[in-house]
């Protein structure tokens, strides 16, 4: 039962970490990053379609993102979708490409982004602790049902806490890296 609990915990906490990392990819760092467009959907003949499926996204310069639509008639739809997504950037189009210039981040903006990243980190830790609580509840139920002994409960709880601490430390490490990336000019 211990290995099953440990496997469940590692899988669910691993998913929480992966979700956290995916959210961090969308945080603007002053450099062009195509991941910022992941949540943007374009009205493609009535169907909401991800930007990367209606055009080729490239980064010709460090602070420039360029989108070349596969169908040039969609250029205004793509531009409108980016504006409506409130990404903090303004697209411009020349009839062939949509260009998104990423302005250099001010000190104030960097600090705001660090706050946003810390909140995402805290949300990830909350998700990890929720998984810990679920497994601890499962262990207590097993004890109540006389499936395991009181000594087993202590052993299982200690192991659950060790796994939780490992994943919380991983979140802290990812946070520190992202914070350093945001604060360095």
Provide a descriptive summary of the structure in words.
The chain is elongated, with a radius of gyration of 22 Å. Strand 3 and strand 4 (64-69) form a beta hairpin. The protein has 185 residues and is of the alpha+beta class. The strands form 2 sheets. The protein has a 4-stranded antiparallel sheet, covered by helices on one side. Strands 1-2 form a two-stranded antiparallel ribbon. The chain starts with a helix and ends with a helix. The mean pLDDT is 88. The relative contact order is 0.16. The protein has helices spanning 2-25, 75-84, 107-144, 150-183, and strands at 41-44, 47-50, 55-61, 64-69, 91-93, 98-101. Helix content is 57%, strand content 15%.
List the helices and strands and how they pair.
Layout: H1 2-25, E1 41-44, E2 47-50, E3 55-61, E4 64-69, H2 75-84, E5 91-93, E6 98-101, H3 107-144, H4 150-183
Antiparallel strand pairs: 1-2, 3-4, 4-6, 5-6
Helix pairs in contact: 1-3, 1-4, 3-4
